Amino acid sequence: MLRTRLAAPLAAALSVAVCAVAHAGDPIMPLAQVHAGMHCTGYSVIRGTDITSFDVDVIDVLAGPDAQILVKVSGPAVDQSGIAEGFSGSPVKCDGGDGVLRTIGAIAQGTGDYGNKVVLATPIETMLGEPVDVPAGTKPMSQSLKRRVRALATPLSFSGVSGPVATALKAAGRKAGRALYAAPAAPRATTFAPQTLQPGSSVAVGLSGGDVAAGAVGTVTYTDGDAVWAFGHPLDGAGRRSLLLQDAYVYTVINNPTDSDQLTSYKLAAPGHDLGTLTNDAPAGVVGRLGALPDRFPMRVTATDLDSGRVAHENLEIADETAVGQPTGASSLTQVGPVAIAQAAYDILRGSPARQSGEMCVRVALRERKQPLRFCNTYVGGSPSAAGAPLVADFAAAVGLLDSYNFATLHVTAVAVNIKLRRELRQAYLLDASGPRHARRGHDVKVQLVAQNVRGKRFRQTVTVHVPKYLAKGAHVLALTGTPADATGDAASQDLTSTFTVTLDGGGPPDDSGPPTVSALADAFAATGREDGVTASFHDPGDSAGDTATNEVEVLRDPALRISGAVSLRLDVRK
Length: 575
Hints:
This protein is mainly β. It has helices spanning 124-128, 143-146, 163-176, 332-349, 389-403, 496-505, 518-526; strands at 2-3, 39-47, 50-62, 68-74, 91-95, 101-110, 118-123, 156-159, 180-183, 202-210, 213-224, 227-230, 239-254, 266-282, 285-290, 296-305, 311-319, 357-366, 373-380, 412-422, 427-434, 438-440, 444-453, 458-466, 474-481, 534-539, 553-556, 562-564, 566-574. It has 3 domains: 2-128, Thrombin, subunit H, CATH 2.40.10; 143-422, no CATH class; 427-488 and 530-574, no CATH class. The chain is elongated.
């Protein structure tokens, strides 16, 4: 349900032409016949998949080109929670005096009253004026109109997430201004079979299906053959879309009658079976068609517990809106993929210990490139409140490059992620370095490093350092610098909430043109893989600022051990 504090109806920009086409679905009542005092019935799902009815009384009709119907609800189904988020689209049917129930509209907006009982309904004529098939090039809602409505008013439910991942998602939803909840996975087929979408049914507009399903859950208002109208308000107001049209399972209605921005009643619901394609994200509702599914691609996450050898898999189907031009600016992969990565890391370790080490390799296959995009990184350190946060940040940054690519249309065909983690810090610290006192330009020197494992033994490692020919003669300091643990890096990369907030918002338009070719994009993607070894560089002895006289060159890398800290020794460089 769209919650708003507007005392008047939406701006005139929301108005659409009244549908002049006859529909073969349930009978409808023209707005001209709706009046104050009518006693009607609303329909929605309160628990499971069964449609429940409740009483609706028409208070008034807010006339004008953007007319709405002001109603008050009552009855056992809504007395406790009122109209919760997820009721959006609930059809309201009235008897016009001839004993025939006719649909007058869909519950779509709240008024902010305590108890959520007084709400606004979008007239059915307005909803049916939104076409199922949207012509290419149709403009989305204007920015001025978007500022006056919630970008995603129906709850966006992520099923199959738990623990700190669920907590971070909820916090990200609050920051992004979106109604976002973590829900259990939908029940098994024995409890939850594919549903026939009909007025009053729960429906989801899905970004993904599978082990981590994400979808905005609302209610079906009207059906006509294979066409489905729902919500009574926009999803993102983006116009032409290509998302999953799904049924949904409602566990319960969470009651909070305060109805503030952060505290309101909502349906705890999970997206279910893929039934069709959502084609139109319009001002007066969302519209789709049953049957054929939208373009989509698989995402497979394989997570390995290096301590026990246990392997777990997550399999997702990601809705692909490439063919309709990514109308929101962010792909479903960008929004759902990071959540799947975080959940896999949490599940495989059965928690989120601070002492953890491992690696992640990501591969994205494109139709436009023979070789997949890829990167690999090692990780050391974690946070109990941020499951797999550095992994998630890296994945989000890499796939975000695809959304911001401006020079061709790219089609993702598959995404594969391989995560391996253990519950210990595979880390050592540099303690000392020794080597010759003199060196010649253009030659190599052998340097012995002394390091100690975290809570372990000391060890020695000999490295070879090349002395550049261009280095000036005289005294220099040879600095050998390790790589710190990931938990000491950029604060944003340690915070799941920050990463999720950016991905839910789409990150905004790119600041520059980005890579000019697919090959350059592949290089940028690969650059997500960080250098994590020990580097050598030469400094001037009196340089307190630490500026190097040479570039840093990696001289030691152990993929199974992160070596941190820094040591140095003085060298007299000769001709």
